[in-house]
Amino acid sequence: MMELSLQQVIEEIALLRFEATLILGSLILLVFGMLSNKEVTFKVIFSVTLLVSLFLVDVRDVGASTTEAVSIDALSGILKILFAFISLWIVFFHSNMRRYEHYFLLLSIVIGSSLMLSANHLLLFYIAIELTSLSSYLITGFSFSRKGYEAAIKYLLFGGVSSAIMIYGVSILYGLSGSLSISEMVVTTQMGPLYHVGMICLVGGLFFKVGLVPYHFWVPSTYQEAPTDGVAILSIVPKIAGFALLHRVLVNFELLSDPMYRQIIAALGIATVLMGTFGALRQDNIKRMIAYGAIAHSGLVLPTLLIQGEQGGLAFIWYVTIYAIMTMAIFMIASMYEDFGIKDVKDMKGIGIQFPIMGTLTLLILIAQIGLPPTAGFTAKFYLFSAIWNEYQASGATIMLIYLIIGLLSVVLALFYYLKIPFHSFLGTAESPYFGDFSIISRSVVTIFTIMVLWIFISPEFLNKIAFNINFIGW
Amino acid sequence: MTDSLLTLIIFFPLLVTAVVLFLPNGKDLLIKEIALGATGVQLVLSVILFFSYDASLQPENWSNAFQFVERAKWISLYLGDYGWLQIDYFVGIDGISLLMICLSTFLLFVGVIASWNLSKNVKGYFILYLILSTSVVGCFAALDFFLFYVFFEFMLLPMFFLIGIWGGPRRGYASIKFFIYTLVGSLFILAVMIGLYLSVEDTSLADQTQEVVHSFSLVNMMDGGYITDGILTPGNATEFLGMNIRWIAFILLMVGFAIKLPAVPVHTWLPDAHVEAPTAISVLLAGLLLKIGGYGFFRIAYGIFPDAAVSLTYPIAIFGMISIVYGGLTAMAQNDLKRMIAYSSVSHMGFILLGLASFNVQGAGGALFQMVSHGFISGALFILAGVIYDRTGDRGIANFSGLAKAMPVFTGFVVVFFFASLGLPGLSGFVGEFLVFLGALGSDYLPKWIGIVSISGIVISAAYYLWALQRMFFGQFWTREKVWEQTMYDLTARELLLLIPLAILVVLLGIAPNVILGPVNNSIEFFVNQCFEQSQLYLAQ
Fold first, then answer.
1. Chain A to chain B, count of Cβ pairs less than 8 Å apart?
2. Which residues of A are less than 8 Å from B238 in CB distance?
């Protein structure tokens, strides 16, 4: 280990200025939380922190620290912008008396996830994942209900075991290579059965974090019971970070050049899509249905990791960006219906007739989730399917064709379950009229998201700008 | 004005939708008048289109086969290592789409009058109706596959809600079934579309970027602008399930459009949707939405994959024949008047498959004529079924008898349209079917027996129409419920207004089919020749 001067350390902190700002902000939040009990204070600190950090990200910044523990590139820059941008909208969720810890935990999830993007050292990598996970377990219990605690404990137990397995894998890899730095390990690791054990443990742990089959079972109950704004963050930020990390692992350890790993990962991805869609078919609870839909989305993001070259990277960025926007919107909508006391699809009868604008907005966001025009959801799926088809055309791997077919099938099945909501809300008749109205703030935010979803379909050219900014080295 | 005439026809109703959106809820009559005005303008513009279309044009290849072409860049996306993706706003018409557009605007106008008595949530209904108007016409005018697909999908939601909210007792089931069937079909089309655009390039756009530009232009696809190693490039030996991948792609397209058409065995959504849909929506469903399936055969499946089409004429003709006979036999077994008409649609749509499969000018022209004529006839038949339903809330064939005594004018119209539908010479149904049989029997590709068996379809349709006529309209006047007898008044002025123009058109087309065959003659001839030449070219590779 080389000696570092203080000067160097300070300079290298600059690489982590996004995370450092967030940490600072969360500390301020803790202090204010003890002094004040007004929720609006917490919301202001939360959003200011995110806004400041948002402006500190520079996509053109590329570099690594001397110890190579931290490395940042344009991809992580763009994802950090996405995280901060998406998390900002949390403050618009309708809530009464959230504790300051709530916002602190949400910030911690964002911090952990951004660190995951930059981690090039397995220790930092593990710390980042644990920071994210521990905050996630806690936030799941923040609905302060019996079922919420149950979901949180379940999540904690499963998560704890998966972390243990992952760290076991890391320790095997460390024992084999004598190093924890991902880029150094590539050089020193010798292929052997033990290596594969370590690798499978490590990748398995990551699969748990992003909710891929066979580690998806925590997703439905967590999504159903956690506070809705918490789930919104949970289903977007750590998941996308997890995929970026998974990709880094797959590429750096050269797993993708091994056809066996490719086949297995693709097969698990296909299983995830099927599990998510078929699971969602049987759900009546709105959030649980979205949870299964999110599992299916995870399965659809996975193939982009397997596609080498620029197009895979583009399809990834494209899909997760749109996924983030429409998932935020759908959770916003879910929380608005929750304020009406509506948790099940069947409680929605006739609500779309009584509130046609809200009904239409819901419909459009659901159309995006299904992946039909004229919404961004279609563009994302279209781009994804193009990438998969191209990969099939280039490599001739039949599994990619199967992936394409399953992906298309999932669109049809998504129609079955997502359409239940407009089906009941427009075609059903209410037993008695609904009292009250949706809050104007939430309605405006959902309108903004809907316009985004439509606008990206009509004019998706900003993707090109992202594409030219990112240098997809190694994708 | 002709520069942007097509765009105006397509988007005028959508423009009006924006106006309707901001009207207060109570102004039902005003909304109806606005909708009538909007579709009226669309109709007038398409009449102008019809008369300014240059029918004498004899194209050499697809790129100069279209008139009123408008093209503007819409989306350019960077595909990484695979170059660029180019989606255009690209519309234009040849004779085939010209007829379809005129048929659409006419029926859309009729549909507004047919829904004049509507009282439930009028604003929502006409907003959806106007969106539907835009997407139907857009579908027929689009020359960019992506644009076509967007319009195609865009029809589903308005239709889903129009059936689902304003429909009959089992509307929920019918609307979901309709949606799912069509969506499955459209995903087949999506899969082929993705494969196709990755396999073609538009060389006229390539020089700007020095990279491959994958375009969605149907013209480019029909003219065969394939890249050398694309998976759908003719001559590519890739096989899937033991069949060349181009054949697979063609079959997927045919299935996708056959669901829309619908052809047996993927037709079961149609009777349900028809029975539950309100009258005006049934008219549009039968008159227009089914035609999009047929149009898709012409423009996309046959236009782009002529080699697969030539090789697969035999199975296509068989499916056409089965649709004709099976649809007819099922129609005979129905007790509900609307259901009977729905199955007769299945039967008549079989002629389109048969006509196309015969792969000659008579067959293709007959198929096209059949689409137009069936649009008018089935529209009128559903209006007639709606007349009885409006008065009694029932449509059972066995529940009425001797209606001719109570409603002589109504019965007159029923006779005209029943006869038109069963193919009586002198009415429009005859011409289309006759041409299709000429094509099928004179085809180099089909055995004679397919045509001969299909002719029995005419006998079957005569049987169920005449039988229904005899049961419902002749004999002693009687209705199942006594109260219905008072409500059995003859046609109102509004209903006459709907039916008279349709009757005139049906007779006119029957006597002088050249009114529409003239303008499309060159297009059809070109279509058939081009398909034939290109199929030989592709098959040789």
1. 94
2. 396
DSSP secondary structure string for all residues of B354-374: HHHHTTSHHHHHHHHHHHHHH
pLDDT of residue A3: 64
In chain B, residues with a C-beta closer than 8 Å to the C-beta of A415 are 179-180, 183
Yes or no: say if A426 and A353 are a contact pair by the CB < 8 Å rule: yes
- Are A374 and B82 within 8 A, CB to CB? no
What's the token pair of residue B321?
């024949």
* pTM for this predicted structure: 0.92
What pLDDT is attached to residue B491? 85
Structural domain total, chain A: 1
Q: Please give the Cα distance from B351 to B378 (Å, whole number).
A: 15
Residue A459 is assigned to a structural domain of this protein = yes
**Is A374 inside any structural domain?**
yes
Q: Which of residues 8-47 of B touch A (CB under 8 A)?
A: none
In a domain, B142, yes or no: no
Q: Cβ B164–A415 below 8 Å, yes or no?
A: no
A400, A415, A416: which to substitute to probe chain B, counting the most B Cβ within 10 Å?
A415
Using a CB-CB cut-off of 8 Å, the residues of chain B touching A405 are 191
What integer pLDDT is reported at residue A1 of this predicted model?
47
In a domain, B382, yes or no: yes
- Alpha helix locations (H) across A5-72? 6-13, 17-35, 39-56
Q: Can you spell out the DSSP letters for A231-259? A: HHHHHHHHHHHHHHHHHHHHHHTT-TTSH
Rounded mean pLDDT of chain B?
A: 89
Q: Residues 110-169, chain B: which have Cβ within 8 Å of A?
A: 121, 124, 149-150, 153-154, 156-157, 161, 164-165
Q: Which of A120, A140, A144, A143 is nearest to A132 (CA)?
A: A140
3-state SS class at B101: helix
On chain B, the residues whose CB falls within 8 A of the CB of A309 are: 80-81
User: Within a domain: residue A460?
Assistant: yes
Whether A271 is covered by a domain: the verdict is: yes
pLDDT block averages, 10 residues each, chain A of length 475: 70 84 93 87 91 86 74 86 92 79 92 90 90 93 89 92 91 84 66 83 89 88 90 93 90 81 92 94 91 94 88 88 94 89 87 87 93 90 90 84 92 88 85 81 92 91 74 61
Q: By residue range, what is the domain housing residue A308?
A: 256-475
The interface predicted TM-score of the complex, written ipTM, equals 0.88
B426 lies in a domain?
yes
Q: Is A427 close to B164, i.e. CB distance below 8 A? A: yes
User: What tokens were used for B262?
Assistant: 């619908």
The domain containing residue B344 runs over which residues?
Answer: 305-541
Assigned domain for B10 exists? no
**How many domains in chain B?**
1
